[in-house]
Amino acid sequence: MIAQKKGEYEIRPYRHNMNWQIQKFATCSSTNTQLKEALLSGKVQAGTVFIADEQTQGHGRLDRTWVSPKGNVALSCGCPLPKNLQKVYQLNLIAALSVLHLLKNKYGFENVFLKWPNDVWIKDKKVCGILSEVVAEADAVVVGIGVNVNSRLKDFPQDLRPLLTTLKEIINTDLDLPEFIKGLLKNFDENLKLYLKNGLSFFLPEITKDLKYFHQRVRVESEGNAAFEGKILGIDENGFLKIKTDNEIRQVISGDVTLSE
Ligand code: BT5
Q1: In which element (H, E) is residue 93 found?
Q2: What is the pLDDT of residues 51-73, one digit of tens each?
Q3: Contact 143/132 with Cβ under 8 angstroms?
């Protein structure tokens, strides 16, 4: 296959026009792990999407557990690897925005927020998490998206229940899951195209509008660094979080953000 080059992002000759090659599984350890392995072994290429009804070993960042009961969305999209690896972080935001658009525009949910760097929240609860993992040898990045759709709080471990919500808990009815996934992949497809053409800057006004804790004082924790507090000023064109502390403006590449007490 011949790759075309566009800016810093290599575009493979698959088109993002709902042309994802979809493979479905009833049960999967983790769609991210399975897709990474399939990409590495050359069985599939970028453009492939793995979807599972449930995952037994779903994971988040830093090997945290992602709970993935039946009725939810668990899927992973194989995307071409940006040449600049920092851009992998930007794919998290593009995927999160695609979920946010779907929840707000197609299903009419209110109080939907993008929580930097990789979540979608409704009010004060997490409803979606995203994990992008690089598969350098296959020139690909796997973008994993988990959304709590038709599950109930009782389907989750007790300790997680206060932190999360599901769409069914909010509207008390099931959504058509295949239709939901179709809409999600369509949005991701369209947003990826716009992103490849215009870069992240194009989306910053939208991201900022629905950014969780925008202009609020938060605590930032990132691995290997001392925690600190400051006000969220927004997200820059790299996808980094801009925080105003008492004496400087800091850029955060990755980490966890909680509201200051
Ligand atoms: C994430 O990590 O939020 C990324 C989750 C990515 C899941 C997708 S599903 C398809 C693909 N296959 C995978 O194996 N993963 C991807 P992080 O920001 O580190 O957040 C993890 C934390 O979210 C956990 O420590 C829990 O506190 C919480 N959590 C776990 N399951 C949850 C759920 N279903 N809904 C909301 N929060 C959850």
Answers
A1: helix 87-101
A2: 999 999 999 999 999 999 999 99
A3: yes
Task: Find the residues whose C-beta lies inside 6 A of ligand 1.
Answer: 30-32, 55, 58-61, 64-68, 74-76, 118-119, 126, 129-131, 144-146, 148, 160, 163-164
Q: Which of 114, 40, 52, 129 is nearest to 78 (CA)?
A: 40
Coil, strand or helix: which one is 32?
Answer: helix
pLDDT digits (tens, 9 = 90+) for 222-249: 988 899 999 999 999 999 999 999 999 9
DSSP 8-class letter at 144: E
pTM of the model as a whole: 0.93
Beta strand 217-221 pairing with 228-235: antiparallel
- The owner of tokens 């979809």 is 22
Give, as one character, the DSSP assignment of residue 241: E
What is the C-alpha separation between 179 and 83, in angstroms, rounded? 33
Average pLDDT, the chain: 92
Residue length, the chain?
Answer: 261
Ligand 1 atom showing the smallest separation from residue 30 Cα: 14
User: Cα separation of 245 and 115, whole Å?
Assistant: 19
Q: How far are the Cα atoms of 43, 56, 183, 260 from residue 152, in angstroms, in the given order?
A: 36, 17, 22, 29
pLDDT < 70 stretches in the chain: 1-18
**What separation in Å is there between the alpha carbon of 23 and the centre of ligand 1?**
21
Q: Whose CA is nearest to atom 13 of ligand 1?
A: 58
Q: Which of 18, 73, 44, 1 is nearest to 193 (CA)?
A: 18
